[in-house]
Amino acid sequence: MNFDPEKIMQSAPGPYTMIGGRRYLYFMGTGYLGLHGHPEILKAACEGMMKYGMGSATSRRAFGNSQPILDVEAKAAQFFGKEDSFYFMTGYLSNSVIVQALDGTFDLAVADESAHYSAYDAVHLSGRPVYKFISRDPASLDAVLREQCTEGKRPLVITDGVFPVLGALAPLREYYEVLKNYPGSAMVIDDAHALGAVGPTGRGSVEQSGLPWETVNTNVQPDNGPRLFVAGTLSKAFGGFGGIVPGSKDFISHIHEVSPYFRAANPVSPGVAAGCARALELVMENPGMITQLHDNTRFVRTGLRELGIEVADTPVPIVCVVLETVEMMKKVQADLMKKGILIAYNPKYSDLGPKGGIRIAVFANHTQDMMVQLLEGFARAMKN
Amino acid sequence: MNFDPEKIMQSAPGPYTMIGGRRYLYFMGTGYLGLHGHPEILKAACEGMMKYGMGSATSRRAFGNSQPILDVEAKAAQFFGKEDSFYFMTGYLSNSVIVQALDGTFDLAVADESAHYSAYDAVHLSGRPVYKFISRDPASLDAVLREQCTEGKRPLVITDGVFPVLGALAPLREYYEVLKNYPGSAMVIDDAHALGAVGPTGRGSVEQSGLPWETVNTNVQPDNGPRLFVAGTLSKAFGGFGGIVPGSKDFISHIHEVSPYFRAANPVSPGVAAGCARALELVMENPGMITQLHDNTRFVRTGLRELGIEVADTPVPIVCVVLETVEMMKKVQADLMKKGILIAYNPKYSDLGPKGGIRIAVFANHTQDMMVQLLEGFARAMKN
Questions:
Q1: Does some domain include residue B38?
Q2: DSSP secondary-structure letter at A163?
Q3: pLDDT tens, position by position, B125-140
Q4: A229 touches B at CB < 8 Å
Q5: If you average pLDDT over residues B211-227, what whole number do you get?
Q6: Beta pairing, strands A227-233 & A243-247
Q7: Taking residues A34-46, what's their average pLDDT?
Q8: Residue A272 and residue A346 share a domain
Q9: CATH code of the domain containing A355
Q10: Is A205 within a domain?
């Protein structure tokens, strides 16, 4: 198909990104730690590619395991403070990995109406009834559960931890309280946009919300509260590619037994895996990256607020700005683009209102000067 | 997790493959053209990786298109004689891409009982009723359709084109005849093991069966026969990674509109894409590869038959051998392994009988000497 040549990406995404022949100051996408073009990661990826080839061409049941895949799983386990992890071909299937592993332990699914497509795919695939609740509304969740969880039916609640355009955190604590009333309940959090980016040590929205991390992705049923599960990806903050589910040894072994992605699919291309293993090491060697991302996020949010723009007060590096009119948002986006600064205006997205919204992605390696350019561009565009 | 170190793959899969510290003559996996470690492919992959980074960290709706992805799509279109194609993160989702694109055009799904997990995922996800028919049995398909397709209900039939362990071809012509009785019917063929390997020019089981290729993956409804759809992968014969669906311009545009894998997922890692683009070029520059694969397949099948072993007479590079007893098959596998030759004994697989079977994968770059070693090893193991 012919895509607009002015929109073709010509470099790794990063603070500066080549698009359509032009070098842009880039505040888009999901590479929150700014790692997708990191030379050490790319070097590791190439070395892995040269040694192990394009793929194993067989599943992991037999000879399809290679060291880069195992390295990613070991290092992700270390980063997340879990015993093991499962690394697979795409983050899109992360929710499915978990929901498949929970088969037989829930009777119905209840999903945030704005949850990601992949969350809906995962629960629809389970064959259980699927209900929706109003996005980020614990009272709505409560009402749906009251109505549907008759006769001790065990609900599986699924939600994004961080919504991809709005950047809002799901009210996980409130959901947790609601779910205490439903024995055997489970909460599955698609934390694609939060892992590596949100929470004091980058463990995502569960860490941010103060819920117990220890029982996440285990076979343990807490005495007083729902089971917690987190689905992740290495394609966003971590600068890599592929889905990741860290968890207890038992839980990961169970996934190996039941997941067709383990038994009947190729593992990730080994060069990509080698790059991801190095990326996870880099993040662990430099925990300051995550702190810097939080500082940058605060800087941009504060700066926008000083311009009189209403911005939510969250530590999420996705900053959503809804201005008075659609025209105003389009103008700001276009003006900034002319000045070589890219932000997104999304006219429509599941988690946005009727006007849509501007989405600004903050990276750990955006410098203060870059962020000042963004804020000044914003100020100029809104004045004219 | 701790995997058996003797089973860890330490090189690209190819005629010789390093596993657990030992170099094996390798007749396993799915790399039928022997390309996963081809130096030109790996060079292209590394160059792509260095230029475009680990991933676009954004979907293809906005700036997530890069030249390597577009190159793969153009070259796959060329190889398959189609106007366009859609390249996405994993072949596992290939059936889903097609079934999603057909939403609203079928009322129920009928699947070969031994079809791949991913075929079942695709039809279950559609939310339509799913029925099974006896594997490779047109009469069983006919019976199920007669029973279920009341009131003009339009069936979608889904099957593997080539079964992964048995190596059998689905009787597509017979299905096609059956489906002529059902207006609006569709047949979806998971041709993962056949594309690039089976058929005079490598277009897979549709080409092999002599069914009309022109209407495959188009929006055209043939006057007299079902619509035909083929789901593919670049991870097997083509020596690459990721799912591929070639098709008409209209059909691919429709996929762009409806597929969440286009709109809400990262495209394939660009280095991997660059490698795949080179792989497709190589196959087109050297059509002799495919002929060689067919010759090698005939050589191995004939050789086994000369040893008194019953082997199906098909051009599929997956040779399945079922010996008298499980013990005998285990012994042959173990004896060959001791001699440094790897074949698989699968005790259990959806397309196999109760004894399981030996699976031999033939590659285009297995030399005659290598195949003779395999056959001699077989002869020795069966004698002792």
A1: no
A2: -
A3: 999 999 999 999 999 9
A4: no
A5: 91
A6: antiparallel
A7: 98
A8: no
A9: 3.90.1150.10
A10: yes
Q: Is the pTM of this model over 0.90?
A: yes
- According to DSSP, residue B130 is labeled E
Strands B318-321 and B357-361 come out as: antiparallel
Phi, psi of B87 (to 5 degrees): -115, 130
Contacts of A10 in chain B (CB under 8 A): 51-52, 66-67
Predicted-complex ipTM score: 0.97
Q: A186-190 and B108-112 as β-strands: parallel, antiparallel, unpaired?
A: unpaired
Chain B residues close to A52, C-beta within 8 Å: 9-12
Evaluate whether residue A145 is within a structural domain: yes
Query: At A3, is the pLDDT very low, low, confident or very high (cuts 50, 70, 90)?
Result: confident
B52 chain-A contacts, CB cut-off 8 A: 9-12
Cβ neighbours around A327 below 10 Å, total: 9
SS3 A299: helix
Same domain, B95 and B83: yes
Please tell me the distance from the alpha carbon of residue A228 to that of residue A255, in angstroms, as a whole number.
Answer: 16
Q: What separation, in Å, do the N-terminal and C-terminal C-alpha atoms of chain A show?
A: 38
Please write the tens of the pLDDT for every residue from B71-125: 999 999 999 999 999 999 999 999 999 999 999 999 999 999 999 999 999 999 9
Assigned token pair, B3: 């995997």
- DSSP annotation string for B35-83: -TT-HHHHHHHHHHHHHH-S--SS-TTTT--BHHHHHHHHHHHHHHT-S
CB-based contact (8 Å) between B260 and chain A?
Answer: yes
Instruction: Judge whether B182 lies within some domain.
Output: yes
**Among B157, B107, B151, which residue's Cα sits nearest to residue B132?**
B157
Note down the domain range covering B171.
44-285
> Is pLDDT of B338 > 70?
yes
